[in-house]
Q: What sequence folds into this?
């Protein structure tokens, strides 16, 4: 159904010597804007493989953060099995398994052991869900922790969109009895060389790195034209005063000060573009049943549809935030089925070089504070102008600065109707 050429685009990681390339799946709904129906169609193809492989078993699916969280949630929804995702966020009152994804920009990962304790005696197999598997070392690490805690006889499998493991890695898995399932087999041998040839000469917007004065001045700029003292000169953004230093009035820089973002009570509609607090939150970082999570996402969409007016042939952008991908993709797919032109993708921790070169997947990078942790760099790529933009997030208190950054970037691209749907416990 799919080939490597259909899905794989190679990008250049920024300042990562452990792995210089990043595989960007153009249909995944993460880094590149995609039609949500095409995204879910790919996920459902993988769900078909999972159903055939594990249909008679009572399994636990574990989706890897960030990029495989939506894949795992979709597979769990289709199979109505147990599901939880790994996370890099903090959850109060739980015990974790800690493990490392060594090649990642944010290497530390966690899985909630408190919830695994509740379910391991009920399931026959733990199935790890990934967007791509290359060496398989990360999964071997967490599998070893789980076997140590629950017994050497614990059964595992891995299912992924892409599998780039070489023969030696596959042999290690075979010896450990870990089965591999995937949509597309890939050859990673040339990816490093391909990534290194790109110039990284795309457009980089707005940086809230440590050192930012709060008045909009951009410090820590990686672009040509930076004088070395960290101040960003030659800024192409609206708001540049002509001196080259980018300064934006703070009241305009953060949407919540303009009324674009306002906190309301649960279910209360805010007049005009603003923030909506949705009910019925289910946290996929904790153990859920796939059918229950899908029903919660359906309930979320129903609330959004009541609150936010859509009309005619509107172009709609739907954005998720970091690990919170599936509810946004699902909502986007529902809008698409109603006849709207919809694209979806999400913010990410991954700092990826952008380039103007033909064939390169990402051309513009927008930097913002994470709504989950003030001061943490996150990114969104290739924003465009739409009739409406809807941001879905499960970030809790303190999210306003990061959401304000995201709204500011959207407005710089001409989006003046921005809605934020906050779904959190």
A:
């Amino acid at each position: 159904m799919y080939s490597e050429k259909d899905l794989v685009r190679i990008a250049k990681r920024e300042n990562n010597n452990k792995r210089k390339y990043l595989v960007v799946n153009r249909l995944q709904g993460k880094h590149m804007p995609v039609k949500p129906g095409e995204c879910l169609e790919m996920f459902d193809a993988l769900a078909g493989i999972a159903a055939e492989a594990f249909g008679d078993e009572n399994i636990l699916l574990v989706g890897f953060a960030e990029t495989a969280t939506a894949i795992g949630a979709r597979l769990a929804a289709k199979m109505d099995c147990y599901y939880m995702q790994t996370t890099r966020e903090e959850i109060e009152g739980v015990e974790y398994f800690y493990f490392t994804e060594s090649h990642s920009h944010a290497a530390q990962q966690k899985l909630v052991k408190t919830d695994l304790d509740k379910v391991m005696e009920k399931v026959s197999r733990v199935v790890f869900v990934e967007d791509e598997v290359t060496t398989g070392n990360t999964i071997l690490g967490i599998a070893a922790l789980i076997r140590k805690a629950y017994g050497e006889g614990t059964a595992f499998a891995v299912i992924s969109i892409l599998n780039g493991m070489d023969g030696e890695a596959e042999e290690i898995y075979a010896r450990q009895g870990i089965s591999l399932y995937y949509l597309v087999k890939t050859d990673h041998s040339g990816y490093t060389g391909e990534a290194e040839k790109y110039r990284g000469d795309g457009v980089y917007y707005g940086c809230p790195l440590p050192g930012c004065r709060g008045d909009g001045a951009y410090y820590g700029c990686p672009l040509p034209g930076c004088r070395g003292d960290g101040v960003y000169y030659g800024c192409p953004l609206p708001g540049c005063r002509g001196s080259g230093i980018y300064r934006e009035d703070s009241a305009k820089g953060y949407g919540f000060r303009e009324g674009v973002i306002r906190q309301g009570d649960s279910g209360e509609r805010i007049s005009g573009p603003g923030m909506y607090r949705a009910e019925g939150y289910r946290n996929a970082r904790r153990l859920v049943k796939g059918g229950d999570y899908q029903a919660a996402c359906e309930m979320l969409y129903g609330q959004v549809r009541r609150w936010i007016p859509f009309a005619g042939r509107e172009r709609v952008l739907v954005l998720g935030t970091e690990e919170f991908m599936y509810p946004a993709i699902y909502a986007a797919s529902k809008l698409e089925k109603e006849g709207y032109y919809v694209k979806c993708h999400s913010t990410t921790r991954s700092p990826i070089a952008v380039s103007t070169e033909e064939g390169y997947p990402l051309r513009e990078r927008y930097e913002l504070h994470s709504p989950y942790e003030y001061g943490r760099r996150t990114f969104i790529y290739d924003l465009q102008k739409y009739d409406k933009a809807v941001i879905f997030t499960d970030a809790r208190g303190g999210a306003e600065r990061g959401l304000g950054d995201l709204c500011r970037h959207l407005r710089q691209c001409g989006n003046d109707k921005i809605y934020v749907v906050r779904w959190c416990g």
Observations:
- The longest helix spans residues 36-54.
- The radius of gyration is 21 Å.
- The chain has two domains: 4-196, 203-422.
